[in-house]
Each structure stands twice: as structure tokens, then as C-alpha cells.
């Protein structure tokens, strides 16, 4: 099934993602990446980048390969590093490095996602430095940060830095998005666009759809029947869609 929705996305941010895709396609994407920008933009960017790196199929948005359909937290070729308390410690980074040393199970690549990268302790940064220089041939480090200037200069210099905006997305782009089969990844993307529409318009119809999508995500994460989740979303969309257009 295809639902037409309106996603507010910055043309500059889309251009950066397109450039990254082109760099990956032509073998020019570094294995140590720093992406910076606002939290909402990073949510989308991290998801799209990791899908592109790990895709086992066409690397197109409508790909339904095993890797594209698997939530990032459940993918065997993703190592996620986030603060356990206020910061990311040296041992967390060391564990991620050890995880990256194990060859990927599904994809041709394996990704360590460190977010927020500015939470790295100085000890953790120092440990990470040498590993950013020589990751395994299949390995990628993806550092996502809202405050890249807080990172050591030597960390920044060892990464290919891709800069997204911190502003609210400024361009309205209409387009279709498939939510069949219903997946966590697709719901994240759809929720993002609907949320931006609500924040921009204040229209409570968008709020109702946003809340429905959030509930759908939670239910799907708890192993609910995807058809029931789809039916709930579809009911709200069909009831409110004309008023939101």
C-alpha cells in the first residue's frame, strides 16, 4: 500500500544525503564518518546512512531486503554506543572495537554508531583515535553529534565530516512512501514527516495521526500483528486525510 504524505525536509540536508550516497556509490565514502546537525535531522540521517551501508539489495528506498527490514537495534552488523550514564567510557568504545573486529554476519559491511559523539570521555576519544585511522576493510565508524566542536580536533580530523542543518526543515516536498510491509524503519520516517507537519501547522489532525503512528511503532516493537497496526493507521489517515491535505 502507498500513502501520500507531506514531509518537510531541508533541501540542503537532502543534498548532503545525496552527496553521501554518490560518494558511497563511487567508493569515495570514508570509513570513519562524522555527521553533525540537529537531533531530528540526525535521526533521519543515521537511519538512511546505515541502511545504505548495510543494504543487501538495491540500495533503493523501497528495498525490502533483510537488512533494510530489520530495526537498527536488532541488526547483527550494527554496534550501537551510547552513554551509560553521563558519558561514553573507554571500555564501551573498546567493546565496540572488539565487536567490529568480528566479520559481518549479513551484510558486506559492519557499522559502529556512536551517538551522541560529544558524550565520549577524553579517555574514550583517545582510545578511539587509532582505530578511526585503520578500521577493518568492511568496517565503518559513524559518529553523530549535535556539538561536533566538543570533540577533540584530532577526532574531527580523522573523520570525513558531513554537516547537516540545525534548523527546522524548510522545504515542503510531497511524495509517496510505502508502509507495506509495516516496519519500524518506515514508521520512524513517516512519523518524522507527520510530526514536522504538526509543528509547522498546529493542526490537531496531524497531531492525531502522529500519536497513532507513535502507538503503532510501540505496538510493532512489542511484536503486534503488522496488519492490525496498518489498519489502525489507515483508519486515521482515511478519516483525517482530506482535512490535512
Class derived from helix and strand content: alpha/beta
Give the CATH superfamily of the largest domain. Answer: P-loop containing nucleotide triphosphate hydrolases
Radius of gyration: 19 Å
SS strand fraction: 15-25%
Q: How many structural domains?
A: 2
Summarize the structure.
The protein is α/β, with parallel strands linked by helices. It is built from nine helices and seven strands, in the order βαβααβαβαβαββααα.
Name its key features.
single chain, 245 residues, alpha/beta, Rossmann fold, 9 helices, globular, disordered N terminus
In words, what does this structure look like?
- By secondary structure, the chain is α/β, with parallel strands linked by helices.
- It folds into two domains: 30-163, 3-Layer(aba) Sandwich (Rossmann fold), CATH 3.40.50; 179-244.
- The protein is 48% helix and 16% strand.
- The protein has helices spanning 11-25, 39-54, 66-69, 90-100, 122-133, 153-157, 184-201, 204-221, 226-244; strands spanning 2-8, 32-36, 78-81, 110-114, 139-145, 160-163, 172-178.
- The chain has a five-stranded parallel sheet, with helices on both faces.
- Strand 4 (110-114), helix 5 (122-133) and strand 5 (139-145) form a beta-alpha-beta unit.
- It is globular and about 55 Å long.
Lay out the secondary structure.
Blueprint lengths: L1 E7 L2 H15 L6 E5 L2 H16 L11 H4 L8 E4 L8 H11 L9 E5 L7 H12 L5 E7 L7 H5 L2 E4 L8 E7 L5 H18 L2 H18 L4 H19 L1
